[in-house]
Predict the structure of Binding-protein-dependent transport systems inner membrane component.
Amino acid sequence: MVKKYRHTAYAYFILLIFVVVTIFPIFWMVSTSLKAPDEVFSTPIKLMPRVLLWKNYSTALHARPFFIYTLNSLFASTVSLFVSCFFGSLAAVGFTYYSFPGKKMLYLIVLSSLIIPVEVIAVPLYLMINKMGLLDTYAGLIIPMMMFPLGIFIIKQYLKTFPADIYNSAIIDGANGFTIYSKIILPLIVPALTSVGIFSFVMTWNNYLWPLLSISDDMKRTLSLGMALFENSSIVSYNQIMAIAVFGSVPLIILFLIFQNNFVSSISMTGLKEG
C-alpha cells in the first residue's frame, strides 16, 4: 500500500513539474505586460510588477489597428474552420466507407502532404494565387489556409471506432449518401470535428508566412502579421509587446475552454482502432 501511494506521489510530482513548465511562460507574459519598462529587465528578476500598469494594453492596442487585425484573423480562422471541417469530414467518410479505384494511393498522398513544409510550396502557391488575381484579397488569404489534411486523418480514425454496420444498415434501409452523412455520421463525429476545428482555427490564427506573402494592404493584415510589424517598429517596448501577445492569446484560450470536453474525447478515441 505504501509503495502504491509512493508511485502515485511520484506521478503527481512529475505532472506538477509539467504544469509549472507549461503555465510559467503564460504567467511571465501576463506579468511582463503589466510592468513598467524599467522592470522588464530589472535585476534581480521580479515575478510581479510593483504597480499593475493596465495602460500598457491601451497604449499598445492604439499603436496600430489591432482591432482590425483581430477581425481579419477571426474571419479567416472561422472560415477556415468551417470549410476544413466540412470537406474534411466528407473526405473522411469517403475514405472510410466507400470503395473506389486508387483509394489507398489517394489516401497515402493525403497523409504524405502532412510532412511537406509550408515553405516548400509557398512560392508555387504564391505564383498560382497571383495568376488568379487573388493577391491582397481575403480570398487569396483564406483559400490556401483551408486545406487541412490532418483533419481528414483525425476524422477517419475517429470513424473507425464505430462499427461499419452503422453505415451498411442505413444503406439497406434506403438512405442516400447525404442523409447518412447529415443524420447519422455528423452527430457521431462532433468530438472529432471539434478537434479538427480547434486545430484549424489555431493554425490559421498563428499563420505568419502566408499573410506576409499574400497581403500588403494594412487593413487586411492578420493579427500575427500586425504583431510582428509592431515588434519590429523603431521603438521596441517589451511590456507592450507582451500586452499584444496576451491580447492575441485570449481568443484561443476561450475557444479551448468552451470545447475542451469534446477535444479531449476526440483525442482519446482517435487511433484506438488500427487500419
The radius of gyration is 23 Å. Residues 271-275 have pLDDT under 50 and may be disordered. Residues 2-33 form the longest helix (32 residues). Residues 97 and 229 are 47 Å apart (CA to CA).
